[in-house]
Amino acid sequence: MTAETHLSEAVEHAKPRSDGDGVAAAEPARGGGHDVDSGIQLLWKQFAEAPEQLLRDRLVLHYAPLVKYVAGRVGTGLPTHVDVGDLVQSGIFGLVDAIEKFEPARGLRFETYAMLRIRGAILDDLRSQDWVPRVVRSRAREAERALERLGARLHRTPTDAELASELGITHDDLRDLYSQLQLTSVVALEDLVAAGKDSGSLVDTLPDDGAVDPVAVLVDQDNRRQLAEAIAQLAERDRVVVTLYYFESLTLAEIGKVLGVTESRVSQLHTRAVMRLRAKLVEQSI
Question: How confident is the model at residue 195 (pLDDT cuts 50, 70, 90)?
C-alpha cells in the first residue's frame, strides 16, 4: 500500500469534533481523554525514535480533523466553485510536513504549529493555481478599498479622477490599472447563472435547437382542428376542390377533369372556398 493510499484512508476515516479551543480534534478512544493523551504521547515518542511511515500515518489519522477545520475556514472566503475537498487534499500534505518537522522537545503545542503549516500549504496550492500576479491582486484590493472609502465619504459613485487622486496615481495609470484588473474579474459561469436563484445549472441555460416547442405544438394542433371544422362546413364541391388542391397536390386543370368542369371554373370554386374558409376561421377566433 502506497503512502498516498495511507493518507487518503486517514482523511476518509477521520471524524472531526470541536474541543474547548474551537479547534477540531480527533474523537477520543474508549477509556477517556487521558488514555488518548497517553497514547498520542507514546506515538510521538516512538515516531521520534524511529520515524517510520506506519507511525507517521497513525499521527496523520489522529490529526486529520485539523485539516478539515482549517480547510473549512479558508474555504469560507473563496468562490463557491472552489472545492473544499481539494483544499483538504492540499492541507494533508501540510500536516505531513508538520509531523515530520515538529520537535516536541521545544514545548510548542503541535495543534498550533500544524494549523499554520496546513494553512500555508493550502494557500501555496491556491497561489500556484492563480494565473493573476500577486501584485495585481494587491492593487485590486487597494482599488476596492479606495472605492469604499470614497463612496462612504461622497455618498455616490466616485469618478475616475477622484479615484486616481485617492490612489495617488495619474489618470493614465488608473486606465492601465483597469486593464490589469480585468484579469481578476473572472467569475464562474455557474455562479452567474445561479445569481438570485435558489439553484441553477449551466446546462439549463443552453438552448436545444432540436427540442420541440410545446406551445408551438399546441397552437399547431388547435389550428388544424379549427381548419378541419371549417372545411367540414363547406359545400361538397368546395370541399372537394380544397382537398384535391391542398392535400392531393392536383393542379387546377387536373381538378377540372375530375369534376368535369373547365379550369377557370375550378379557379372560381377555389377562390370561393378560400374566402369561405377565411371567414369561418375569423368567426372561430372571435
Answer: low
Distance from C-alpha of 269 to C-alpha of 261, rounded to nearest angstrom: 10
Residues 43 and 46: their CA atoms lie apart, in Å, by: 5
Count other C-beta atoms under 10 Å from residue 166's C-beta.
17
Does 242 have pLDDT greater than 50?
yes
Q: How far apart are CA 231 and CA 242, in angstroms?
A: 8
Q: How far is CA 48 from CA 5, 31, 45, 100, 104, in A?
A: 23, 25, 5, 9, 9
**Quick one: which H or E segment has residue 17?**
strand 16-18
Smallest Cα–Cα separation from 63: which of 133, 97, 14?
14
Determine the Cα angle at 143 with ends 141 and 149, to 5°.
105
Residues shown for the chain: 286
34 or 268: which leads in pLDDT = 268
Residue 77 is predicted with a pLDDT of: 67
Count of C-beta atoms within a 10 Å radius of residue 68: 21
Note the Cα 179 to chain centre separation in Å: 26
Pick the closest to residue 64 from 102, 101, 115, 10 (CA basis). 10
Q: How far apart are the first and last CA of the chain?
A: 80
Q: Find the helix or strand (DSSP H, E) in which 26 lies.
A: strand 24-26
pLDDT beyond 60 at 32: no
Q: Which three cell numbers mark 105?
A: 522537545
Which of 156-160, 178-182, 186-190 is predicted with the least confidence, judged by mean pLDDT?
A: 186-190
Identify how many contiguous H helices and E strands the chain contains and give both numbers: 14, 2
* Statement: residue 7 has pLDDT above 50: no
